[in-house]
Write a structure and sequence with these properties.
Homodimer. InterPro entries: Aminoacid_DH-like_N_sf (IPR046346), NAD(P)-bd_dom_sf (IPR036291), THF_DH/CycHdrlase (IPR000672), THF_DH/CycHdrlase_cat_dom (IPR020630), THF_DH/CycHdrlase_NAD-bd_dom (IPR020631). It is globular and about 50 Å long. The longest helix is centred in the first third of the chain and has 21 residues, at 8-28. It is of the alpha/beta class. The protein has 9 helices and 9 strands. The strands form 2 sheets. Strands 1-9-8-7-5-6 form a 6-stranded parallel sheet. Helix 1 (8-28) runs parallel beside helix 9 (263-283), helix 2 packs across helix 9 (263-283) and helix 6 packs across helix 9.
Length: 284
């Protein structure tokens, strides 16, 4: 068996065009979608991500209000800035680029953003909604994963899903969404201390990896025809590697391209989320 690869580039272009059309429709109604993007410090990797997000927004007609704060900013100063953006009626959504400097409390920052402006979908109210039949805001990477699963045509009800990684950006929200009332899969969350990793993966219909461990998942761990979605990234010896070994393509049914960033899907879903929030605000 040879896996069918998800065409992330083609899907990304379709999503970009869809967002451009939606933004144009909103503007015609007098609704100007606007993303407030808060960047703390001068982390080179974060700066690259931020630049790409801004470029995407401008391509489709979403205004961006970029706020750059020094790495030395205090918790009080950062929360004050978020509060100002939160009460600004011209701002559709707020995104604080993570990770933050170690002296800042990420959870406090996430909770300072109102759920209806929380583009990352990490506010406790939005996370809880993932378990319901009508999730409010789905975190961007998880929304991208969900879009790929829908593309396979696989019946999700009762499907066995293994999620490798339990981080708050991917693993945790993915487990809540996929085990919730809207998707109804059976989810097992795996991590570095999990026992019998290979056996659990082999008994899964869907494998989602977000561990940042290069080529951890090998062909012998994957059942024939399984859907394998790899959003993990690491850079051993300066080379980008995913969590899934390329040879998994010999047994999987569907698979993300090996050793390829999932970033295009995350960025495209960011656009959709900003437009969703702008649309909801415009009809409120």
């Amino acid at each position: 068996m040879t896996a069918r690869f998800f065409d992330l580039d083609a899907l990304g272009l379709r999503l970009l065009e869809d967002s451009r059309n939606r933004a144009g429709t909103l503007r015609a109604r007098g609704i100007v979608p606007c993303l407030a993007l808060v960047e703390v410090g001068e982390d080179p990797q974060s700066a690259t991500y931020v630049a790409r997000k801004i470029e995407d927004c401008r391509k489709v007609g979403i205004e961006v209000r970029k706020v750059v704060l020094p790495a030395s900013v205090t918790r009080s100063e950062l929360l004050t800035q978020i509060q100002m953006l939160d009460t600004d009626v011209s701002v559709s959504g707020i995104l604080v680029q993570l990770p933050l400097p170690s002296h800042l409390d990420e959870n406090a920052v996430i909770q300072a953003i109102s759920p209806h402006k929380d583009v990352d979908g990490l506010h406790p109210v939005n996370l809880l909604s993932l378990t319901t039949s009508e999730p409010t805001v789905i975190p961007c990477t998880v929304r991208g994963i969900d879009a790929l699963l829908l593309q396979t045509g696989l019946a999700l009800d009762g499907a066995r899903v293994a999620i490798l990684g339990r981080g708050k950006l991917v693993g945790l929200p993915a487990s809540l969404l996929l085990s919730g009332q809207s998707r109804n899969t059976t989810v097992t969350i795996l991590h570095r201390k999990s026992k019998n990793l290979g056996n659990i993966l082999r008994n899964s219909d869907i494998i989602i990896t977000a561990s940042g461990s290069a080529h951890l998942v090998t062909p012998d761990m994957v059942r024939a025809g399984a859907v394998v979605i790899d959003v993990g990234m690491s850079w051993p010896e300066g080379m980008l590697c995913g969590d899934v070994h390329p040879d998994v393509s010999e047994v999987a049914g569907w698979m993300t391209p090996p050793d390829r960033s999932f970033g295009v899907m995350t960025r495209m879903m960011l656009l959709k989320t900003v437009l969703d929030l702008a649309e909801k605000k415009g009809t409120a």
